[in-house]
Design goal:
The protein is α/β, with parallel strands linked by helices. 55% of the residues lie in helices and 9% in strands. α9 links the parallel β10 and β11. It is elongated, with a radius of gyration of 33 Å.
């Protein structure tokens, strides 16, 4: 079966081509070459004329006329090793390769596909479903060109593999089926084939699994920033979704879409909100007709919901997955060593009807021990039977013995999964990341204010308390010519504590949302934008703080003869001193703070692609980065403090003064470098735990549910094992 033509690519053509396992013809040697493979492991002998390339390990001999070795690949090749020794190179790889961000994206998709297939309900055996080919749900390009509208042709049944049908449709396919008919599993099997192709062929587009269930047209139109006037709403949604799911930067997504190096595999159209489905399909239709349309695309949806929308799409083929036949059911049961269940299924017409759907057949196989036949036979509607089957499955999985003893009772697991399912349904989320917890999603407005107040006070208390300690221990030594009285010392401690406490509060209020600092990568444009945007704020803040501080300093330095001076003149003098100090030190500290906090720390951006490898990765990396910034802030303040002490307090050793200011500035840098995100996340987790909405050890709980086949885990993202199960949990009442 021939594959669809590849999209245009800017990558240079390689000088050699490796055998493609997906194309059997590529394994045949050319007629004018004689290739003799020795039985000795790793030894290859090539004879003939015009040989251009030798690949393999321990290549020894090339014989023939006009042999030119242009590429030699493999380990322990003598020529390559000598060349690398001369030039000091250690990498023996040759030939072009995908850019690293693309390789990471492809690896992430491949990991997701393999993990979801491995954790699927019917992982033991894949059923090649019968399919019906139809053109009634689509509008082909050739039909549009001759203005014939839809093509009404007789449906055609086939058992061809989904990858073959994808190739027949030139990579533009619509896949339909009933609830639980195996659409997502079939799509994952297609994705597995396509990722293998992308691994072998450098210019083949990268498949990406995207769920249309999270489509929110109104929110997207408000938050998206169009890369160009010609960009469509669907491309904006894809860019946003790639950022949320795979961590792909907007710039990289725009490039991949523009160069048609992405292969969107769109699932879950019927799972979108009912009022959003028509808008989503309309946006998809406009995108497929636009100049930015992808070379390949696959859409997956329920048959009934798609036909109700009555929007034929510009695709080449529609495939309808048919129910299982009795022969397929028996074959499946035999493959999982459960053939004894067939007489039970065949004897009950209602059960046989459900068993023709792959999802319900898998659930029945897993839960038939918990099904009471007398109770089953009393159920009169299909909906009641499905609910009973789902309840039996949940009950079976909750009492299933896992690899380790569970720390959670069945009642706790059921309740917390209900909370999670309701959250995912309400926010139309395609999976759950622990680090994605936000106050507005889980707390009431009153509780959000409490959470913000607690974090603000803690953020202000840390640098404020440290500065009070500095004032108490170091200020008398710095200003040794000032006679410190008890009242004056306490007053100055209060003033400095308020000043630096306000600094911490300002840091906490800059970005109230929980934003993990996962990477340390600096961007000059972003640093410049943040520097200019926050310069006046920091100048005004420090001018005010040093003005207040100047009042206290002037008050403490009043001479004893001040009583002979009119009060109004004293007030004016103190005001002038405070104003001058506020302007000068406000300018110095304002510029210094803006450069360090906004220019350096604010210029940090995320990588082009940020793959989630483990649960709560964002907060864990934020904690690590917090320690890095703590060290950087402490070191910078040690150097700056030592230089300042040499100028204003030469009687104090510079290293002592530098050490004294390290905790203050280090704490501020740590807050901005990930500490604030950790503090916000930890306090939110504590509030949710105290309210009983989520367990404290959330990762352990989610992993336990994954072991019980209630959830799937891909990297650090969790999702219910099937959308039907998520909807069932969401309908359960709370405590």
């Amino acid at each position: 079966m021939s594959q669809p033509p590849l999209p245009e690519s800017n990558l240079p053509e390689p000088d050699f081509s490796e055998p493609d396992p997906l194309k059997s013809d590529s394994l045949k040697p050319e007629p004018h070459l004689q290739v003799e493979n020795s039985t000795l492991e790793g030894v290859n002998i090539v004879q003939g004329q015009g040989n251009r390339s030798v690949q393999g390990d321990e290549n020894q001999v090339v014989m023939g006329d006009r042999n030119v070795v242009t590429q030699i690949k493999g380990d322990r090749n003598l020529l390559v090793n000598v060349q690398n020794l001369i030039w000091g190179r250690t990498d023996t790889s040759a030939g072009p390769a995908r850019p690293r961000p693309e390789r990471l994206l492809l690896q992430d998709v491949q990991q997701e596909v393999n993990a979801r297939l491995k954790q699927s309900l019917h992982q033991a055996a894949f059923i090649n479903l019968e399919k019906t080919l139809s053109l009634q749900e689509i509008q082909t390009m050739w039909a549009a060109e001759v203005k014939t509208g839809r093509v009404n042709s007789a449906p055609e049944s086939t058992t061809a593999a989904i990858a073959d049908l994808f190739d027949q449709a030139d990579g533009r396919l619509l896949m339909l089926g009933g609830p639980g008919a195996g659409k997502t599993t079939t799509l994952l099997n297609l994705a597995q084939t396509l990722t293998a192709r992308a691994q072998q062929q450098l210019d083949y587009p990268i498949p990406v699994l995207l769920s249309l269930s999270i489509w929110q047209a109104g929110q997207l139109s408000l938050t998206s920033s169009r890369a160009s006037p010609s960009s469509s709403l669907m491309s904006d949604w894809i860019i946003s979704t790639l950022k949320q799911k795979y961590g792909v930067s907007a710039q990289l997504s725009q490039t991949l879409l523009a160069e048609r190096r992405l292969l969107p595999l769109l699932d879950g159209l019927d799972e979108a909100a009912p009022d959003q489905q028509a808008q989503c399909l309309s946006a998809l239709d406009l995108w497929l007709w636009s100049e930015q349309r992808p070379t390949y695309v696959v859409l997956c949806s329920r048959l009934e919901e798609f036909r109700q929308l009555d929007t034929p799409l510009l695709l080449n083929q529609a495939v309808v997955l048919e129910p299982l036949t009795e022969a397929q059911i028996r074959t499946y049961l035999a493959s999982i060593e459960a053939a004894e269940l067939w007489p039970m299924i065949a004897a009950d017409a209602n059960l046989l009807d459900l068993a023709q759907t792959p999802l319900w057949l898998s659930l029945f196989v897993l839960t038939y021990h918990s099904i009471a036949l007398d109770r089953w036979q009393q159920l009169t509607t299909t909906a009641a039977r499905l609910t009973y089957l789902l309840d039996a499955y949940i009950q079976q999985m909750l009492h299933r013995s896992g690899p380790a003893k569970s720390s959670f009772t069945p009642a706790q697991t059921r309740y917390w999964l209900t909370q999670l399912a309701q959250h995912l349904q309400t926010h139309a989320a395609d999976g759950f990341l622990i680090e994605s917890l936000q106050t507005q999603d889980w707390l009431s407005p009153r509780q959000q204010k409490q959470h913000a107040l607690v974090n603000t006070l803690i953020s202000g208390a840390i640098p404020g308390f440290l500065m009070i300690m500095w004032t108490y221990f170091m200020a008398p030594r710095v200003f040794e010519n000032v006679e410190f009285k008890a009242f004056d010392t306490v007053g100055w401690m209060i003033a400095t504590g308020i000043t630096w406490g306000a600094l911490g509060i300002l840091v906490a209020s800059i970005q109230p949302a929980i934003h993990p600092i996962e990477s340390i990568r600096w961007s000059w444009p972003q640093a410049r934008r943040k520097f200019l945007g926050r310069l006046l704020t920091w100048l005004g803040f420090w001018a005010l703080m040093w003005y207040i501080n100047g009042i206290f300093i002037a008050w403490m330095n009043l001479p004893d003869e001040i009583s002979e001076v009119p009060v109004w003149l004293v007030v004016i003098g103190i005001g002038l001193y405070a104003t001058v100090q506020g302007l000068i030190l406000g300018l110095v500290y304002g510029l210094l703070t803006t450069v360090i906090l906004e220019g350096f720390i604010g210029g940090l951006i995320g990588p082009k692609i940020d793959i989630k490898r483990f649960p709560n990765q964002g907060i864990r990396r934020s904690a690590v980065n917090m320690l890095w910034f703590l060290g950087f802030g402490a070191l910078a303040s040690f150097v700056a403090g030592g230089l300042l002490a040499m100028r204003v307090a030469p009687h104090i050793p510079a290293w002592q003064y530098g050490l004294s200011v390290m905790p203050v500035w280090g704490s501020v840098a740590a807050l901005l470098g990930g500490g604030k995100a950790c503090l916000q996340h930890g306090s939110l987790r504590w509030m949710l735990y105290r309210q009983g909405k989520l367990p404290w050890n959330l990762a352990r709980f989610l992993n336990d549910c994954t072991d019980r086949l209630l959830l799937q885990c891909v990297g650090g993202r969790y999702r219910f094992i099937h959308q039907t199960l998520q909807a069932h949990f969401a309908e359960m009442p709370g405590r």
